[in-house]
Task: structure prediction
Amino acid sequence: MVIERLQYLRDTINRANYLYYVEDNPTLSDYEYDELFRELKRLEAENPLFITPDSPTQRVGSKVQSSFEEVKHKYRLYSLDNTNNEDELRHWYKNVQKECGDVDLVCELKIDGLAIALTYEKGYFVKGVTRGNGIYGENITENLKTVKAIPLKIFKDYDLEVRGEIYMPKTSFEKLNAENLKNGEKIFANPRNAASGSIRQLDSTITAKRDLSIFVYTPILEGIENAPKTHYESLMMLKDLGFKINPNIKRVHNIQGAIDYIEEWAEKRFDLDYATDGIVIKVDKFAYQNELGFTSRAPKWATAFKFPPEEVNTKLLDIETNNVGKTGAITPVAVLEPVLLAGSTVSRASLHNFDEIKRLDVRIGDTVLIKKAAEIIPKVIKHVDTDEHDKLPVYEAPKYCPSCGAKLVVPDGEVNLYCPNTFNCPAQAKSRLEYWVSKEAMDIDFVGPNIINQLYENNMVKTPDDFYKLTQQDFMQLDLVKEKSAYNIYTSIQKSKTRPLAKFITALSIRHVGKETADILANRFQSLENLMNATEENLAEIEGIGEIIAKSIKDFFTQENNLEILKNLNRLGVLPTYKMVVQSTVLNSKTFVLTGTLSTMGRSEASEKIKQLGGKTSSSVTKKTDYVVAGEAPGSKLTKAQELGITILSEKEFLEMIQNT
Result:
């Protein structure tokens, strides 16, 4: 029986590790994972003969597998043991006291993000690697260079490695999910998943737009002259070098000081704009850390206190399915018996999609466990096993659109249910109209959902081109719209006629095409006509597009209804603009790759100058590359350029080239 339980725990935890670290698709909450891990440790301690080499207690994580280069860490990244209550914390401190006596401790907020290791050579950032399994990680250097909180050069010419946590602010997470929901794209479960997914994008331009940040928390001080003697002093050194450290770090004199710190932040953490799930407590003096050493997977001189999960049980009253997005996606929402959760009353929660409902086997009438994902979005975690559960009918996903009655479909390769009645579904039409006027699209002020609903119900606006057919007097027919308001609405609509091409493409609500993809398309084709004439093969070859998005774009521009709307928009004077100054005969159509650090400008500024002068930039060196611009501390791109015989420009030569144009 014990052997079987041990095997089950190993298999479950290893599977969870794989889904979390490799697939970015966690299936267990932190609380569930920790409970399983603690049970495994206890059973193995009681039955040491049954410990196997593949047990998760014998290693940090699981094998990295991705299209990023796999590299071995120079210094291993260990995990941390967890404590859940004051007694466990005092027990940990007693073990420290046995070896070192009373010691100072450093308390830090545990940031819920993605652990990374940054390498600096002579003060320049040269490599960034994910934690991975602690021994091997993924080289994501180019993506990390887009995170503005990471200094490309520190204030001293040190050879140094530092560890930190990449995270996404809560406000940025909410904004990203809201945009993705509108575009029918992936919804992230929490800021940690969003940060992980963003920093591991193959296209670094997408990473650059995701508003990521970092807190650095540990330096490797090997070879540093007059290095700090304590962890707290090393953090101050990192701050002096130009790194971002958490401002809430505190040094305390004993375990009671750490407990007081934990109590202080138990509630205050909800006011922060980043997710925290605990407190990390470390012995301050490095001499004591060295004396205490490590277990096979974690340091003995540190522990993580995990806050109790913000989870509560409540009744699932209904599953609402009348949310039809602009691309036709049906989003299920749990309607709950109101309950207090993390300081606010919750009556609705996310179920993401119908596959998720099936996986969780939640049924209307169930008692369900809900939590706030990173203290933000309420989410159903699971149903609570009760006698009533099996008596309830298994939930069946809707078969027909709640707005127009069309039979719902599941497109190949997707999990969402969609209404295929694109042009005659009222809910889709209203959603597309709302998106058309939004800030990220055509940016039309004074036209909110109430105005759009009136325009639609009065048959004044059915498709976006109809906005531009209306007069000021037409708007005065609407409820609560007076002359001044009507003038403001009409004027704002007229101003939108010359919005940038990228905004116009975004506003079209093409499935899978959000703001980032629209930017790529606008820069590549520079006119709507060029984009419409592009073949599916042309589109699929573009970095950041791929076959699925290419097919979606081509399908959009072959549908008669869409072509009629575009024709009307053009006739009504809606002419999207693309501004590019092309003066150079040297840079025209030439492809540049930038590597290393430029002293006179940032990489993004250099890239923009190249584009303004008619050139193109790429993140990788291929036979099609014309020039590689090599700044300070260039990476492997320089080596590859030399192997391919590509022209290499120094920063001075590059500046002369663009100045001469």
